Amino acid sequence: MSQTSDQPWTIQRLLVWTTDFFKQKGRDAPRLAAEVLLSEALGCRRIELYTRYEEVPGEPQLSRYRDWVRRHAAGEPVAYLVGHRDFYSQGLRVTPDVLIPRPETELLVVETLDALKQLNRPHPLIVDVGTGSGCIAIAIASQAAQARLLAIDISPAALAIARENAATHKLDERIEFLQSDLLAELPSTATPDVIVSNPPYVGRNEVGMLAEDVRKYEPDLALFGGEQGDELTGRLIEQAAQRLAPGGWLIFETSPMLAERCLARVQATGAFASSQIKKDLSRLDRAIVARKQG
């Protein structure tokens, strides 16, 4: 982003140059990345960039922006650079201690809210296993005012981020947090009506297939679910079959490559009256939704 002519570095010029640069580097959604980084550097909303096209940012803002552009071009995710990501229309703080929330994971929120309607219980207990940033629990709590939420993660650092996000959205009194390996530390008296989870489901054997930004920057603990990818999910299925309330729901995300295998594992427990694969907006097999026998 050097000055190669007498033209000033206006906002419009910065966006055009950066978008092209990110395209050359093979970064996803290059225009969006340029807009997010520049609006953050300027301390404004993305939409405001379009009314400020001819403005020339000051040197402190340009310096920050140049640094972020260089780092993102090298593979560092935009969400970690700016420190936040939207999920279910809510802004969440994210750091390299937590997985960056993906749009496809919003499917779990939609399916959980639908399950709650079918349960029609006054104060259902929802357990979010592997909460990470707290995105799922926070989204559900914001939409289901009568629900009780318990957010679980094995990582203390992730739980700290989730707590902070819950407090930001004034939901910290609605969501309890628990450090646990899956349901190991769940109190014996707790009988969840819904267990929802986006567990680690990348196989160690797939590490070479991961995008560079995921492989280098996102936490291994939140990515890898065993050598084949479904080992940790298998443990969750077995535990959920034992701990769910009669008629309760198990809802979890998985890889399109593992969906059929995970569905078979759910059915093999003999604990669920129904189970099915749900597709995401890209029409890929993305989630398993199962209801325990009543």
Strand content: 15-25%
End-to-end separation:
63 Å
User: Which runs of at least 5 residues are low in confidence (pLDDT < 50)?
Assistant: none
Question: Strands of the largest sheet, in order across it?
Answer: 5-4-3-6-7-9-8
Q: For the residues shown, what is the average pLDDT?
A: 95
CATH fold description of the largest domain: Rossmann fold
What letter string, H or E per element, gives the SSE order? HHHHEEHEHEHEEHHHEHEE
Summarize the structure.
This protein is 39% helix and 17% strand. It has helices at residues 11-24, 30-42, 59-73, 78-82, 106-119, 135-143, 156-168, 212-217, 220-223, 231-243, 259-268; strands spanning 84-87, 90-93, 125-129, 148-153, 175-179, 194-197, 249-253, 272-279, 285-292.
Q: How would you portray this structure in words?
A:
This protein is α/β, with parallel strands linked by helices and about 290 residues long. The chain has 2 domains: about 60 residues; about 200 residues, 3-Layer(aba) Sandwich (Rossmann fold). The chain has 11 helices and 9 strands. The protein has a 7-stranded mixed β-sheet, with helices on both faces. The protein is elongated. The termini are far apart.
